[in-house]
Amino acid sequence: MGQFFLARRKPGFTLIELLVVLSVVAIILSVAAPPLRQLLQSNLLRTETRRLLVAINLARSEAIARNQPVSLCPSSIATSGPAVCSGNYAGGWMVFSNRDRDRTVDVSTDVVIEAFAGLPTGFTLTNRAGTRDASELITYLPDGSSGRNLTLKICSGFSAAAASWSVVMSRVGRPRVARGWGECPTG
Q1: Does residue 157 form part of some domain?
Q2: How far apart are CA 179 and CA 153, in angstroms?
Q3: What is the C-alpha separation between 165 and 177, in angstroms, rounded?
Q4: At a CB cut-off of 8 Å and minimum separation 6, what does 60 contact?
Q5: 7 lies in a domain?
Q6: One digit per residue, pLDDT tens: the chain, 187 residues?
Q7: Distance (Å, whole) CA 87 – CA 94
Q8: What domain range includes position 61?
Q9: Number of structural domains, the chain?
C-alpha cells in the first residue's frame, strides 16, 4: 500500500483572493467617498459658524460685564499682529472694547479682548443675499443690544450641496444660528 501525503496549504492569500478583496474595497470607497467628503465639509461649515457665534456672544457679554461698548470687526490680528479693523470677516476677526464706537482700536482706551483666525481656504462669509463680503463693524452696547439686524452667512466653496449656515442677529442683540438661511454665491 502506498502512502498518500496530503499537501498542507500554507496560510495567506492567493493572488486572486487578494485582487478580489482589493476590488471590493475600491468599489466601497468609490461609493462612500463623496458622501463622506460632503459630511466632513458640512461639519467644518457648522464648526466655523459656531466659532463666529462664540465671538459675537463674547462681544455681547463683555459689553454687559464691562458696562461699555464692545465691538467685533474683521481683522487679521490673529495671523499678522496689528490690531486694525480691515478687510472682511473671512480673513479673521477680533473683539475689542470700543468706547467711542469707531473702527479704530485706541491704545489709550480700548482693549483687544480676543482675536480669531480666519476661515479655512474655500469658505466665504457674506451677507444673507450673498452679494457682498461681510465687513461691518458690530457694536454691542452696555445693555447687550446691537441696535440693528444683521445676518452673516458662511458657505463652503467645495461642496455646492452643503447648505449655508448663518448667524442671525436681532435688533436686541441676540444672535442665533440658522441653516440654509439664504443661497450661497456661485463661482
Answers
A1: yes
A2: 9
A3: 7
A4: 70, 140, 144, 146, 173, 175
A5: no
A6: 556 666 666 777 788 888 999 999 888 878 777 777 778 888 888 999 999 999 999 999 999 999 999 999 999 888 887 888 888 998 999 999 999 888 888 888 899 999 999 998 888 888 887 778 888 899 999 999 998 889 999 988 776 666 788 999 998 889 999 988 777 766 5
A7: 12
A8: 38-179
A9: 1
Look-up: residue for cell 463683555? 62
Burial of 178 (0-12, 13-18, 19+ CB in 10 A): middle
- Tell me, what amino acid is at 27? I
Contact 97, 66 (CB under 8 A): yes
Closest CA to 82 of 59, 105, 110, 109: 105
Domain of 125, CATH number, reads 3.55.40.10
Residue 113: inside a domain, yes or no?
Answer: yes
- Residue whose C-alpha cell is 449656515: 165
How is residue 59 written as a grid cell? 462681544
**Residue 118 included in any domain:** yes
